[in-house]
Write a structure and sequence with these properties.
Blueprint (H helix, E strand, L loop, with lengths): L2 E6 L5 H13 L3 E6 L5 E3 L5 E3 L2 E2 L10 E4 L5 H6 L2 H13 L2 E5 L3 H6 L7 E2 L13 E2 L4 E4 L2 E4 L5 H13 L1 H10 L5
Parallel strand pairs: 1-2, 1-6, 2-5, 6-7, 7-11, 8-9
Antiparallel strand pairs: 3-4, 10-11
Helix pairs in contact: 1-5, 5-6
Length: 183
């Protein structure tokens, strides 16, 4: 069974994180939320508190198949300030394992050099942070093992792209129909 980790930092965009978690779990993908702070209770950018499944120091990072970074402010900056998470992201990227980010969070990939020569997208205004990318305005850009998306309004497409990666397009289409998305 595939395993996805969704990282939560203070100020994360709630819909971007939880839509991915919800869709992946509905599809049967083992999905954990991981707090990068010292507490499992993490407050999102709109003051919604979410109890993470595990703390970063407890998480089985090596057993994961994909690392997902939701956006939001200051959540994106707080994710990027987490040295252990950045080390793991670098390791995943270098091994060709899946990394995904939405909204402002693709800027982290740009800063780390993951987007050079790749199609990528982000929240409007963050395009300059996508260093070396072929910036596009698609809702989701998939380039080999790197997936990016534009923001809260594209969270369903982002989550379904992750489901498609691990479960196939038929499962993603069935799930979209089941939740009344894209008739």
């Amino acid at each position: 069974m595939s395993k996805v980790l969704v990282f939560l930092a203070e100020g994360f965009e709630e819909i971007e994180a939880l839509t991915v978690v919800d869709l992946c779990r509905r599809a049967g993908i083992k999905t954990d939320t991981v707090s990068v702070g010292t507490k499992r209770l993490v407050t999102g950018s709109h003051k919604i508190q979410v109890q993470a499944d595990v703390l970063l120091k407890e998480a089985d990072l090596d057993g994961a198949d994909m690392l997902v970074l939701p956006g939001g402010m200051p959540g994106t900056r707080n994710l990027e300030a987490c040295d252990l998470l950045m080390e793991k992201l670098d390791e995943f990227y270098k091994k060709g394992k899946c990394v995904s980010a939405i909204c402002a969070a693709p800027s982290i990939f740009g800063h780390r050099g993951y987007l050079r020569g790749r199609n990528a997208c982000s929240y409007p205004g963050f395009e300059k942070e996508l260093e070396g990318a072929e910036v596009c305005e698609k809702t989701v850009a998939v380039s080999e093992h790197v997936t990016t998306s534009r923001g809260m309004g594209t969270a369903m497409d982002f989550g379904l792209a992750i489901v498609e990666r691990f479960c196939g397009s038929k499962k993603a289409e069935e799930l979209a129909a089941a939740v009344i998305y894209r008739q």
